[in-house]
Amino acid sequence: MAEKLDELNALAFSIYENRGVYALLIGSGVSRAAQIPTGWEIILDLTKRIAALEQAGEQEDWAEWYQGRFGKEPNYSDLLDALSHSQDERRAILHRYIEPTKEDLEEGRKLPTKAHRATARLVRDGFIRVIITTNFDRLLENALRDEGVEPTVIKSDDDLKGAVPLIHSRCYVIKIHGDYLDTRIRNTEAELTGYSEPMNALLDRILDEHGLIVCGWSAGWDHALRAVITRAANRRYPMFWASRGEPSVTALDLINQRAGKVIPISDADSFFEKIQRKVEIQAALQRPNPASMDLLVASAKKYLSKPEFRIQLHDLVMDEVRRLKQHMADPKLGTDGSWSPEEFKSRVALYESRSEPLIRLFAVLGRWGDGSELGLVMEILQGFGARRVLGGLTAWIYLRQYPAVLLLYAYGIGALRAGRLKAVFQWLTTKIQTENRGTQLPAVQELFLWAWDGGDNDYWNHLYDSKKKTPLSDHLHEIFARYMDDHFISKDEFTRGFERFEVLGSLAHTSTYTTIEDLKQELSSSGPGARGYVWAPLGRTGWHNQIKDVLFSELSEVNLRDQLAKAGFGKGSLEFLDLAFQSLKKGMARMSW
């Protein structure tokens, strides 16, 4: 029997496949992480303040005290009227509950939460268009505007009269309890028993035409909203109910009535972040049809087999280069925009999915090429690797070179798999344009591991739940195991090939970065502040001791050392090679330690 798809994954899949079909219903649980009080909590606090003015003393139930004292339930508007005499005074009272103070800002309170921001990204990308909320704060609206989305906000019948039609709005936010700056906010049980006819009509339409995702709402107080959900006859799309712990009896009645699905969550922040991430990954990984990818690879192999096909090969490769350049013009990969781990993950996935056809071509060219293709691939690497002066966020500027990093590995691993050491060295030392006009550096100094400005561990550790010593190298190992699975007999053989390439990359860096005199000086240095080796970017081999020992044993063989020197490694000097290997071993020992 096939294993059932996890409900969270099922929801993410459904959101992706049914863009704009789901409406969100979010309650106070979504704003709780921002330390925003619920409407009832504000009512109770205002009641306590009135009780303090009347010197009523401590009470077990403040609502009951108010009922006994004034003969009615505490009401938001009545309480504000009692405690203030003007609109400005009422706004000042409400600001204390909602608007962040300087201390709040310093400590990150009363600001959009991770849940709000993940929701805003789903709206920005067109997956969610309608949000019903019982919250009266403006955290959601603020998060949406931070993502460049101006929502149509409905908080009363007055707003409905002049609002943009639902179908024409990029985002519709219905604040069914009102807004905190409008004293008509709905809080008491009596106020929540029914909606106006126009509001009911709008909600009925939404529930009829949309699926529903519920989070942070208990269903306990909102009689009118429960009635809207219950009477919706259409079941075209399902209901998903995110719940911390077991849903209440009232909530279960609604879920069962709608044949809804319960998703256990730890909190709203993690729920919405996971959903947004899973949806975004699906969007990013719109990988080409496997059949078309196989055809692309087969065509490249065919064109490589005979010199007369060199024009067809050139055109095949350049078609993919043009496609990748068009993809990189996507505003989603622009250099503007704020930093977040989720945005970094999203951009990495986008670059990888859109570079994959060219990556696979480069792997084939490296593996089965004869050297005649080297000029073409170098030119392409220079084009994608050139550091251009751009405005925007530094992290996004650096990440623009990521396709070049992927191409560097693809051709290099392929050429090494074929034993083409000279081509590997020439490839690793391809001149790349730096930020300084007229200055060029070898690819191993501009695009390889830590030598690449975008290869900082602080960036790439966001892809993992724990900190790694070589997160970029680990990630590249993971994805190239998929990209190049048909080039190696087994996963173990691939890993050895991958790490052999990275060791040669480190060796090429040392060969181009330093002199034999500096090597000798560093290796013989001792005392405080002495490293004892020349710095070089190192991959996962630095801590992968078992493979490291095997690799260095292979590299110490006289025949291979001669081949490496003839290929250009170690400046063609066996003495330099010996010193460079010593330096790399010491650097890796330090990393492992």
UniProtKB/TrEMBL annotation:
A Pfam family: SIR2_2
Tree of life domain: Bacteria
InterPro entries in the cross-refs: DHS-like_NAD/FAD-binding_dom
Protein name per the record: SIR2 family protein
